[in-house]
Amino acid sequence: MRQILAFSLMAVFVLACDPIEEKNNNNSNTNNNNDVELCNDGIDNDGDTFTDCDDTDCATSPACQTNNVNNTNNTNNDPGTCTPEDLPFQTQCTVGYKCTITNTSNNVGCVYDDGPLSLGDACVPVEAGRTQDGCPGGSLCYAGGGSVGGCLEFCPFLYIPCGDDRLCYQTIPAGSSSAFLCVAQDECDPYLDSGCASGTCYVYISANYMTKCETAGSGLKDTPCTRPGECAPGHTCYEDACRYLCTDHSECGIEMCQKLSQNDPYGLCM
Length: 270
Prior knowledge:
By secondary structure, this protein is α+β, with helices and mostly antiparallel strands. The protein has three helices and 13 strands, in the order αααβββββββββββββ. β1 and β2 (108-112) form a beta hairpin. Strands 3, 4, 5, 6 and 7 form a five-stranded antiparallel β-sheet that branches. It is elongated and about 65 Å long. It has helices at residues 2-30, 55-58, 62-67; strands spanning 97-101, 108-112, 122-123, 139-142, 149-155, 166-174, 177-184, 200-204, 210-214, 235-238, 241-246, 257-258, 267-269. The longest helix has 29 residues, at 2-30. Among the domains are: 84-184, no CATH class; 200-269, no CATH class.
């Protein structure tokens, strides 16, 4: 009698436990790595059977990219804030947004970077009520006071190269500070002062000897300066002083005509 009772109790125990064991086995096969479920788009990318998608699914699912609030590509995030110093570098705004000058009051902020234009394309500057000029992040639509301009690249310091044929040249207001834009050089000769339709040809030594046509300055040799256009024609600004351009020592009086570059066709009286 005791044997029959023991057998009956064992049968009841097995029947009661077997469904739970089967359920646990199904869970184990469904979510082997116990991933935290982040979204619910019904897309299965890694062979599991959850209707929710796990980390592997979220790596490729567009719906997961949108719903995952921890993902930096989430366009619903706060756009962030930025300062004028970030305009050339584009590091302070939320991913998907650009740091730019947002309106006619020259405020600086982050706006959604969905512009269709490229550097150099024709564009319309921002105006009241419109903060996007269509230019890519790191650039701005600059028209110089006109109604149509071009997408010009921001740069961090004046009078440095922006490439082979552009230099950091144009200063514009940005919040309570200033920003700088890259512009194309002018093809002219500063020594002969030729090639400009108007103005004087000046060479920017700090910008790899690129040239610009500008209104003539008046500073003669050794006059303090911050840029070449402050000096008289035939001069440039080097080491904060106006220097006379030369090709021979005889043009420099008691000084020497020194070439700063072996390939430069002219030198400076120093």
